[in-house]
Design goal:
Length: 117
């Protein structure tokens, strides 16, 4: 691929269970942001099969998500925690200043959400 035809993308699809909290936040601009998590089972990997490990607990990742689109926010209002969802969106890195310095987090800006899995 040549530089003229290369294309970068941060598009993601997440299939998992809706987390227990869906919250609305008002930004300083006055816009409303809805934040929630999608819980995804972590695939067994080399770390989970460490020598002598007897733990059988399922490991999960809670993926931080946010939504601005009214269609996604309406869909979230109809869903129950733990319900299977499929989300599509863009991976974003958010920065903020706090009393201890600069902070950052990776989040998914969800543009499409559907129930089911």
């Amino acid at each position: 691929m040549t530089p003229a035809t290369e294309r970068s993308s941060a598009h993601v699809e997440i299939v998992g269970r809706l987390g227990s909290r869906v919250e609305e936040r008002t930004l300083p601009s006055g816009d409303t942001l809805t934040v929630f998590t999608i819980v995804v089972d972590r695939a067994a990997g080399p770390r989970s099969r460490a020598a002598g490990s007897t733990a059988s607990a399922v490991k999960v990742d809670a993926i931080a998500c946010q939504a601005f689109r009214a269609s996604v926010i309406r869909r979230l209002a109809c869903l129950e925690p733990g319900q299977w969802v499929v989300a599509e969106g863009t991976l974003r890195r958010r920065f903020w200043r706090s009393g201890t310095g600069l902070g950052s987090a990776m989040e998914v800006e969800v543009s499409r959400l559907q129930a089911g899995g």
